[in-house]
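This part of the workshop introduces the protein records we will be handling. Getting from the letters to the tokens is the skill we practise here. The record below serves as our worked example for the rest of this section.

…
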Amino acid sequence: MPIDCKAKCGNKAALKRPKTGDALCKDCFFAAFEAEIHHTIVSSRLFRRGEKVAVAASGGKDSTVLAHVMKLLNERHDYGLDLVLLSIDEGITGYRDDSLETVKQNRDDYQMPLKILSYEELYGWTMDRIVAQIGRSNNCTFCGVFRRQALDRGAKLLGVDSIATGHNADDIAETVLMNILRGDTARLRRCTNIRTGGGEDSIPRVKPLKYSYEKEIVMYAHYKRLVYFSTECVFAPNAYRGHARAFLKDLEKVRPSVIMDIIYSGEQLRFKDTAKKPVRGICERCGFVSSQQPCKACVLLEGLNRGLPKLGIGKKSKGDRMIAQQNQELALRERANLVKNDF
């Protein structure tokens, strides 16, 4: 038997919100979903009037909903923002080439300028070629590091004031779990921050969907009939995040509020003053923000170009030994060639 919408609008409920358990009609769900994101933007002071904001666009559900809602709220509440789409082409055949077509559709639907940057033009490599070198055990490390820096490079080219990413509540809860399991206190400190970066040397990133459940994002996209790309990356099944995601889904079955509980716990964490803190600086090679010298992207790229794809995987000391060994082998080879030429 149909039940009434809890918002008492007079309509029958069409869905049950995963976040609150409320039975709502579609229109009231849209209103509640959009109002929560507006509250997140305003209460966290994510933007200022007149700013130029790049919406990180992959063509997936999160970035598509983010672009749609940002445009909607910008017009409804007169934020006064100049919105553009920024997309990164990692060079994954059968995945990114198809999803970029969706991004182009978003560009046309939302009337936003679009900038696409590729790994090939930035680094001289595609993910297809990287996976052929490294295999499928550490490929997500390369992709994640290169994509983060590629977004910074794109933002700098576009001259934007901030980058809005589609990270949702599920993503952030997963990241908290991953950092706890890895003992990564440096990332655990900042992974729940709604704004990261900023300052004179970097462009800040913001997460308007920080408190939005993934299930509600999917429902919103479905009922709004938004065009998005839903195929999983062909290289993702072996990613470490997948284990955290499966664990989180199991917890959610027992306790539906676990996603928000984990985020709130992460926000309240405090660390001893003796805990090691990474020092942000500028990479001496590429000129982008880094907490190490050279930055992780430059180390990974050096490894690929040297024929040592595992150079940036693991501890820095291990990478230094690999470089020293290769330099020694090259020196011996060069010396052997000199002796050969003498005869």
Observations:
- The beta strands are 15-16, 23-24, 52-56, 82-89, 114-118, 162-164, 195-196, 205-206, 281-282, 289-290.
